[in-house]
């Protein structure tokens, strides 16, 4: 009898707090790194470059080269990876989701440790093992490397535009509908749910939605958001795919990406789709509504003037994004219900045009 067991990679360094951007060198010392390559997102070096360099030099860590990630084209990122010096012990990626994904994939190609230093929390990508890159001008999810270390400075996250926080909120809350989709797939004998990955994903979102806060830039709120998004990355690593944190709501967002000329942030689209799918599933819709109202997520979305018709089109397209899955949106009746909800729901009528 074959028994399924797990071998997973989890971060060895996890530092979430204040003033961490000034202390990167000391924080990564436990990795025994002597020589590193540092990659900044576009415009990030100007903000934090000298601070990071000073910290690494003071910790006696040699900087072999510095790169700026401007785009996430697969060919260009692959070329950058193999142009890195051969004696580098680790890669450090600093920036938003695109930069982190690029450096994550470079570390995967070079088979070396990767330190993730996000400057915003727009999704759980800073902690996951997948990378979203442009392949033939289309966004594709590629296997990459779980970070060896994650370092987050709460004040840096606080200083980022609020839209990135709202995006992170939307991405995290989607665990609720994603887990329900995963269970639905198992009930229909399409997959086997991993109980431990489920527990981690549940703990991540439940801990977050129960956090008391006065505003979305409260230190405790942001730390809880970062911690929970990090747990998302671990849950997906355990499962071996994105199912614990990605269901129909993510398929709707990916569908929007396919035809919108200027899509909104991933987590923002996901958050709206999560609210729709919670109504379709008849599962914890009230809880999702409460957190999205209390954080100001809905009010922010209203300023974007996103279109009902775009979401309806995305709902029709969503099942084709991952035809191998069987979420609620893969059932025709549920597609019809989702589109009906867009027409009749008071909140959706208020925030979408």
Walk me through what this model shows.
- By secondary structure, this protein is of the alpha/beta class.
- It has two domains: 13-159, Rossmann fold (3-Layer(aba) Sandwich), CATH 3.40.50.1970; 162-351, Dehydroquinate synthase-like - alpha domain (Dehydroquinate synthase-like, alpha domain), CATH 1.20.1090.
- The chain has 16 helices and eight strands.
- It has helices spanning 24-27, 44-58, 74-82, 97-110, 154-159, 162-173, 175-187, 195-209, 219-239, 248-259, 266-281, 285-294, 297-304, 308-321, 332-344, 346-351; strands at 13-17, 35-41, 62-69, 90-95, 114-118, 130-135, 138-143, 149-153.
- The strands form two sheets. A six-stranded parallel sheet has the order 1-8-5-4-2-3, sandwiched between helices. The protein has a two-stranded antiparallel ribbon with strand order 6-7.
- Helix 4 (97-110) links the parallel strand 4 (90-95) and strand 5 (114-118).
- Helix 11 packs across helix 15.
- The protein starts with 12 loop residues before the first strand and ends with a helix.
- The mean pLDDT is 96.
């Amino acid at each position: 009898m074959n028994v399924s067991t797990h071998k997973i990679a989890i971060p060895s360094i996890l530092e979430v707090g204040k003033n961490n951007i000034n202390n990167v060198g000391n924080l990564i010392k436990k990795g025994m790194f002597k020589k590193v390559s540092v990659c900044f997102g576009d415009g990030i070096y100007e903000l934090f470059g000298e601070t990071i360099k000073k910290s690494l030099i003071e910790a006696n860590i040699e900087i072999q080269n510095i790169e700026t990630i401007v785009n996430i084209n697969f060919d260009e990122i692959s070329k950058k990876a193999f142009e890195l010096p051969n004696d580098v012990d680790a890669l450090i990626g600093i920036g938003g989701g695109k930069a982190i994904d690029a450096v994550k994939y470079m570390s995967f190609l070079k088979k070396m440790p990767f330190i993730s230093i996000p400057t915003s929390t727009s999704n759980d990508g800073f902690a996951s093992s997948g990378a979203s890159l442009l392949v033939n001008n289309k966004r594709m999810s590629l296997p990459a490397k779980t970070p060896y270390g994650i370092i987050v400075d709460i004040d840096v996250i606080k200083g980022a535009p609020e839209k990135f926080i709202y995006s992170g909120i939307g991405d995290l809350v989607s665990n609720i509908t994603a887990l329900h989709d995963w269970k639905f797939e198992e009930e229909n004998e399409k997959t086997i749910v991993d109980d431990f990955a489920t527990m981690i994903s549940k703990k991540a979102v439940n801990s977050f939605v129960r956090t008391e806060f006065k505003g979305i830039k409260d230190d405790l709120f942001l730390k809880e958001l970062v911690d929970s998004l990090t747990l998302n990355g671990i849950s997906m690593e355990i499962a071996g795919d994105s199912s614990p944190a990605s269901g129909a709501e993510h398929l709707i967002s990916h569908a929007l990406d396919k035809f919108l000329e200027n899509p909104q942030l991933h987590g923002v689209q996901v958050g709206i789709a999560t609210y729709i799918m919670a109504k379709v599933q008849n599962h914890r819709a009230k809880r999702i509504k409460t957190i999205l109202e209390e954080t100001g997520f809905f009010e922010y979305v209203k300023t974007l003037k996103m279109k009902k018709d775009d979401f309806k089109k995305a709902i029709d397209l969503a099942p084709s994004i991952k035809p191998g899955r069987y979420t609620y949106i893969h059932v025709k009746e549920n597609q019809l219900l989702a589109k009906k909800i867009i027409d009749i729901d008071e909140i959706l009528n208020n925030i979408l045009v």
